[in-house]
Fold each of these.
Amino acid sequence: MNIREEAKKMKLDAPILAASSNEQRNEALRLIKEALMARKEEIFAANAQDCEAAKENGIASAVMKRLVFNDAKLSDVCKGIDQLCSLPDPIGRILLRRELDEGLVLERVSVPIGVIGVIFEARPDAMVQISTLCIKSGNCAILKGGKETAKTNRTLFGIIHEAAVQAGLPESCLLQAELHNEIDELLQCEKDVDLLIPRGSNQFVQYIMNNTKIPVMGHADGICHIYVDKDVDEEMAFKVIIDAKTQYTAACNAVETLLIHRDLASVFLPRLARALFRAGVRIRGTQEAEDFIARSPETAAEAETIEIMGEDDFRTEYLDLIVSIKVVADVEEAIDHINRYGSHHTDSILTRDDAAAGRFLQMVDSAGVYRNCSTRFADGFRYGFGAEVGISTSKLHARGPVGLEGLVTYKYLLRGDGQIVGDYASGRSTFHFKDLDIPGK
Amino acid sequence: MNIREEAKKMKLDAPILAASSNEQRNEALRLIKEALMARKEEIFAANAQDCEAAKENGIASAVMKRLVFNDAKLSDVCKGIDQLCSLPDPIGRILLRRELDEGLVLERVSVPIGVIGVIFEARPDAMVQISTLCIKSGNCAILKGGKETAKTNRTLFGIIHEAAVQAGLPESCLLQAELHNEIDELLQCEKDVDLLIPRGSNQFVQYIMNNTKIPVMGHADGICHIYVDKDVDEEMAFKVIIDAKTQYTAACNAVETLLIHRDLASVFLPRLARALFRAGVRIRGTQEAEDFIARSPETAAEAETIEIMGEDDFRTEYLDLIVSIKVVADVEEAIDHINRYGSHHTDSILTRDDAAAGRFLQMVDSAGVYRNCSTRFADGFRYGFGAEVGISTSKLHARGPVGLEGLVTYKYLLRGDGQIVGDYASGRSTFHFKDLDIPGK
């Protein structure tokens, strides 16, 4: 398959999908759900082959869990499809309606982005989630899934594509790329692909970002911080920190660095260290943090296991039961540290002090800034957005968890009866700019 | 000056400017206006030197007009500043307020983008417009103006920066780059510069887009089309086409290609050709267009001056009194041509037929799609947005004319009292997603 040719064709067909009705797109979603349920044995059989091969290749059991596509996962993706169907149409919404002059009316209308390339990790449920999100938002998509689930992906894609076409969507609404070299071809399609959404390891996302002129939505690093201010509920702090570090260590929104107010360091820090040790978390601390922990009789012995960290560790996403600890003078130093070393993903302050919290929420330059809760809340489902295609740390277009809303843009429609700019330049006509009611709003 | 070092410092200071109040930013705008008026002789003197040097270098008189900064231009920029002051604060707006669960409230709040690099053509008024737009939207800016007005730019920048600092904005809110090699340095600052806005020739914008990892807002080409459908008011069509081509040929929203319905070609096309010839416009036509014009006794002689065009001409932005003409079968062929050869900027259909117009507005994949009016309306001022930093043909973030709204993004604030994700994962707690009223809305 020649990805460039296919992308070009898709780009020209994209307005056809964009012009489809919400009913038609929902019908496609319903047919997809029905077909997935009707043909589940076929999917499970393909998945069994993938899992067998993965086992033979000695894949880690944590990864293995992601590869599996079973009744539970099928039920989850079907629930997701139901939810998508129930959401209002994200396209064709009138965002602005303004009479520029008598008989000259400007509208800003939401439209799909166009052609989206999605490269995702080996999780077959992602194939269903992403393709249905793209259909609901009227976007054509080129999908490349992880090779470990190649057979499952192929089966799922075939079912999804067939159902979409059956519902009357254009043949070229979805395309599956299967070969690794097709990724590089895809990266060259800047004329025809409007957006790339890569999901996977930091290095992989970084590679994509460095090798394409297509805008990339997503994030390479998730270096999230929790700053513990001096006036804090200690029990709450332990609970939140342990959750943020251990609830799911492989997540991008897991905490990697703890910043502790110096006034707390002599009592709170050893207690926190003990709680972390008990939870199986290894500590990489600054010399000062290690000193505080070593000075306490309760943690002196364990302090020996602390690795003294260098500055570079503050830029490391561990994705493991490891955490960096640094002692800071105040909220200002915490803010400076986070803006300097963080990845602008999600950071939290734990404090009873409204002034310190206000300062932190204002000054930390991240997609998510929290007070008194776990960084793990950074997620489309937990924000109530429904499914998400990823989390963006870019400041342009969509930031934070990206759902349907991040998959649309807008265009301006202007309707007149022969107006020319010359008349306004010469003063024969003048604009009066009157915002009009938007029907149904 | 080391642009990288300065950009790094600016990035860390950006949250300080972002935290400034609307009153403070408006105060800066007022002080800038006062200082510009009080020190106008100083500005005019610097500008006289620039203009003198430009004349010695034999600059074209059309370009010369742009370089001049006189009482009229000063009055224009001061009016622009007044308008900016009167606009509501674009930052700190609450865009979403949702209770995820008891005591856990999510807000989406508008914030400045951060650090913006603007590289603009030799128009001293642009220096004032762009720096004041950035101040109003709370963005730090690195400004590089055209070298032809170096002395004027330096004087203006000095006045603007002094007034901004006097109003209490941070020293590093604005920075002027003056050397051409500093542009290349700026392009390397992807860690610290959030957005680049280049204005200038196609080649220049293309160069920027091809040589940086920083997101670029703007457009390289403005290949705008007018499609004349078969059922059209001929007089209106002539008037709109002549306006779109000749009112300001150097503008990106001037029309470059006319697509004419075949049913109109034998009568309408020769008449249109005559109107274009009279307005001093040269025609590059397809062989078919030339044939229609040559067959008419009224335009047979002039038809000899038509250059027969190749496919590449359809991708050429003339920015001159030249227009391409192609005969098409119907609105579908027009749409296909525009989506294939256009630059997704602004395209217009002239027709009395609602169905054809509806199809065109729906299917043309451009930032602006018009019916029965000139493409020249694509402009921030004419849309009622006030000042603009440029027109974007990108589909991400801002599309079309970009004003204050395109210079902000948002962040998510989450306030809790110790909530952890583990409780929601285990089912001990559940989200209830309740959208709350936004104060003042």
Amino acid sequence: MLEKIDLNVTMDKKTCKKAMEEAGARLSVLQRECKAAGIPVMIVFEGMGAAGKGTQINHLIQYLDPRGFDVYACNRSTEDEQLRPFLWRYWTKTPAKGRIAVFDRSWYRSVLVDRFDGLVPENQVSNAYQDILCFERQLTDDGTVIIKFFLYIDKKEQKKRFRKLSESKETAWRVTPEDRERNRHFARYQQITEEMLEHTDTEYCHWTIVEAVNREYAAMKIVSAVADRLAWELEARKTDQAAPQNRGNYSPSGDRFKNGVLSGIDLSKSLTEAEYKEKLKHLQARLEQLHSELYRLRIPVVLGFEGWDAGGKGGAIKRLTSHLDPRGYRVCPTSAANDIEKVHHYLWRFWNNVPKGGHIAIFDRTWYGRVMVERIEGFCTEAEWKRAYQEINEMEAHMANSGTVVLKFWLQIDKDEQERRFKDRQANPAKQWKITDEDWRNRAKWDVYEEAVNEMLVRTSTTYAPWIVVEGNDKHYARVKVLQTVVDALEKKIREVKEK
Amino acid sequence: MLEKIDLNVTMDKKTCKKAMEEAGARLSVLQRECKAAGIPVMIVFEGMGAAGKGTQINHLIQYLDPRGFDVYACNRSTEDEQLRPFLWRYWTKTPAKGRIAVFDRSWYRSVLVDRFDGLVPENQVSNAYQDILCFERQLTDDGTVIIKFFLYIDKKEQKKRFRKLSESKETAWRVTPEDRERNRHFARYQQITEEMLEHTDTEYCHWTIVEAVNREYAAMKIVSAVADRLAWELEARKTDQAAPQNRGNYSPSGDRFKNGVLSGIDLSKSLTEAEYKEKLKHLQARLEQLHSELYRLRIPVVLGFEGWDAGGKGGAIKRLTSHLDPRGYRVCPTSAANDIEKVHHYLWRFWNNVPKGGHIAIFDRTWYGRVMVERIEGFCTEAEWKRAYQEINEMEAHMANSGTVVLKFWLQIDKDEQERRFKDRQANPAKQWKITDEDWRNRAKWDVYEEAVNEMLVRTSTTYAPWIVVEGNDKHYARVKVLQTVVDALEKKIREVKEK
């Protein structure tokens, strides 16, 4: 999830300040209403070292009535705490009805810092996840609202902040040797974090990832998110929307995906004809070799292709398969579900095409239709597409756990490029069949699609099944990037299998 | 869960046959209705070897229209199946809307037989559980009804059946060397089974444990259970009770707990005064030694006491603590929740009393109030007590995982004995305070309580936190049994810790 976060997100200072003040004013009122309604609230701050958890908590609580909240700094557990089950210190701090408990670090210690520092042995990690999930489910079932923030900065920014803190005597003590260690091994810490987010971003208890480089922006996002969540909860309790069984119905304001991954893509990337031919030839030959290695090692491969209409999926798939042994791969095109498919679970038809060891299954459009076209066109209910993110992650995790390489490509073009291509197709008798009225209709919904795609990319890009956003305005560049990514991933997997 | 199953359950032949025919007739109609309603149904048969899965499936399907179901025998996976993620073979067999799929063994292979036979390595087991839970949740969320039976026989019965099968040439092939191996290591297989039941008896997908020694009784129970479940589902779909968020609302007919654990207890067990004194002295001395070992090894201990009013909890606790160092234990009496406790999660107050390493916490009445008095008196909603079984199991698992010894005692007396004791108390000025009108009121509800207790004992007796039913009519016997059980459990734990 983290690699799809745009840390350069900005907002002009004035707008940001205004939004912050507006949200803060709402929050003050909402706190009183929650108190009256007897809602217990837990707000969790986790994040990279020096991401500004303390500062952000300060921003937040200035809008709260101090008689109604407690802040708990959860440092390394004391000797006394270590003598008890690790959830004990958090259970005893769960807020009474109507109160707010703010946690500066939390029960996530055990799967983040404490795990990294070696205080929680690796064979205990999976138990700890289980315990955390139970803890949050039990509390939310009982009516507690849990709001979780992960404050994210990258290695460079962290190093810069550590350096700045170290320069002054007043603040130098705040940078511990462990902090430096975590910065040195940032990639490992980030991987642990990714795993944590994947395991614990549940439908009843979402993570909000906060781009914490810009402090004002982060503060505004946090205060707004808390206010939005509480407002929803209060409204929901008027009907039975907030009953335990409906707890999955809340989703953070759609707005947060308006300026998402796709807006940060550099579509000017391109290759000359000569570069393209040279690279293509080399990569296709390499892929051919790898394909037979895959076969010998019985490694299954799943490649999913999604993208805008006319984004170049077909062309990329063609370059991918042209040198492959046709007995060892299969292209599975996905169109609207047929009668048989309609009377099964939406994932059933894809399960039927799961490749066996040594084979490559290439999906031209995929199960992600659930959270794009089905979501937008209303072919499934809101509850259905909302739970689909988790279902899809679980399916891909199951494949990856059984040794499958899973890669997903999003072929990105801009709106102008799409128009050019649509018009080309209409003008070319051999390609006219590729363009229908529906394509133009979908195009009209570009913005809603973009929002849905942004959400999809963040919520389903996992360490075990990453999304690769391909800059597709230049077809040559796009095809080479796809091939290169596949070759790299297969080489890595083959190396891992051989090392075992 | 298994040790609380009464394999000697009987029913007279005629009643049983009549119940079977009635359920079968209902089932035929229900199948048609489910087809019309487009409900996909999966029926899973798991069980000990030779428990009669095949026979029972035959009984069941004779009531079904053969055009509407498929039976899948799930043997060891083929080479082709092994080349894919293990859920693939089951996903592809999920039934279309309106159809029934019957599984003779199932996806549970991977955590039962295949695990026992070493085909699934131990470090993959926890992943397999995760995958199974996701699989069932995804399908039930989508409207599939999954009904799971576990056919249980004990070691002796299994051996007998194997012997009988081996005697004839026609059936001898059915007993494989693996079967014999599993019989030889029955305890280990049973433990694996217990673990499976604990992990996968979810609110949306219950296990029905079938006492399979008496085949007619088993058949009747299975056919009735399927009919009941389908009838509920059809009814529920008329409102929104069957929506994914309400999937936990179904619970198997309460009747199944009417003749439960408690009816099989031998209350005539007793000790003479001399035996009692001798044993008590010895056990108390031993417990004192163990207490200091606990302290040195930092092992926490949780002992929970429940039982009928006047069942002897107080007396047993007194004998337990009389020789212990008071700095190392604490008795936590549980009465109705106070104002502070009421505004927290019902488990919060018990979390506050979780003992630290080396200490013993003795709970006089416990968190099980949720599924007894709170259930029966309507102090919590049906949804709340129904999900409490899982919540409690999770809490105890968390304690056990962190090294805590968890034991729960149910002090059982019969109704006459209770009356005698109540009257004794009323007649004794020193004990009059112990008996109130409420006790008499509760006594009037003996039968509903008994059913609730039976359900509780089955659903929350786990390998990591077992229930011990104590025959309590003779106080001497009861006290010694409690002490002996605690001493044995502590000795075992101390041995384990030392061996590590």
